[in-house]
Amino acid sequence: MPADPQIDKLNFDESGLIPIIVQDHANGEVLMMAFMNREAIERTIATGKVHTYSRSRGRLALKGETSGHFQLVKRIFTDCDRDVVLFQVEQIVAACHEGYRSCFFRQYEPGADDWKVAATKAFDPAHVYEKK
Amino acid sequence: MPADPQIDKLNFDESGLIPIIVQDHANGEVLMMAFMNREAIERTIATGKVHTYSRSRGRLALKGETSGHFQLVKRIFTDCDRDVVLFQVEQIVAACHEGYRSCFFRQYEPGADDWKVAATKAFDPAHVYEKK
Questions:
Q1: pLDDT tens for residues B29-88?
Q2: Residues near B44 by Cβ (< 8 Å), separated by ≥ 6?
Q3: In chain B, which residue's Cα lies nearest the Cα of A86?
Q4: CB contact under 8 A, A23 and B19
Q5: pTM of the model
Q6: Quick check: helix, strand or coil at residue A112?
Q7: Are A41 and A53 in contact (CB under 8 A)?
Q8: Phi and psi (nearest 5°) for B24?
Q9: A109 DSSP 8-state letter
């Protein structure tokens, strides 16, 4: 793959990673935060599907590989410091492995003992992840 | 300040920090990404104004302290792993110190040599930051 000067202008951290935000292109919902390395960004741009770098597994991961819940890239932005990348995507079914459309389904409630689930599930994780 | 069990349930990293995303509560625009420590979250909740932890300056910072461009908190969410916090805010004037409403004003354009500025300025940084 030829070098992409726009990727060269991003500021990766000392581990070669950059935080990324994924947002629904249609309604603005923030779906998840993750990390990419250079290869994940190149693969995401080349395929049009979000690929992240999993720090726990130490490898590239196609988002939705198991579930089929891909994130189809519509627009890409970076911030003033070029050290965060924002992907606006078409989300197939849902982003969260717990079954919610967005990973940000827990809301702060003043005085409560725990965060409250503020969304309903878009799919049943047991069904989606066990049958494959 | 009494301990807040919801803050206790967040997963701070080994440096005691947690990445945060700030989003316009009205139109869903992603305004910036930053970091908070426990004290920044407590101060943000207590005052209703976003406070971040500046890694470069090694201290707490009230967002908008110099410019008056505060972020007034409307709703707070955390994600499935409880290791990112999303703040939905009313943004006074603009979030970016470069004068744009959102820090994510640079858009990727296939084949281009550099990211393209995809927004117009909401204020003149020279005017806002020099006169104080």
A1: 999 999 999 999 999 999 999 999 998 899 999 999 999 999 999 999 999 999 999 999
A2: B36, B50, B51, B73, B87
A3: B104
A4: no
A5: 0.96
A6: coil
A7: no
A8: -65, 125
A9: -
Residue A1 has pLDDT above 70, yes or no: no
How far A119 CA sits from the closest chain B CA (Å)?
11
Task: Tell me the C-alpha distance between B89 and B75, whole Å.
Answer: 7
Distance from CA of B1 to the nearest CA of A (A): 13
ipTM confidence score: 0.95
Q: Per-residue confidence at B131, pLDDT binned at 50, 70, 90?
A: low
Alpha-carbon gap: A6 to the closest alpha carbon of chain B (Å): 5
Minimum-distance CB partner of A106 among B19, B29, B78: B78
Rounded Cα distance, B88 and B75, in Å = 5
Task: Write out residues 58-97 of A within 8 Å (CB-CB) of B.
Answer: 75-82, 84, 86, 96-97
Q: List chain A residues with CB under 8 Å of B29.
A: 28
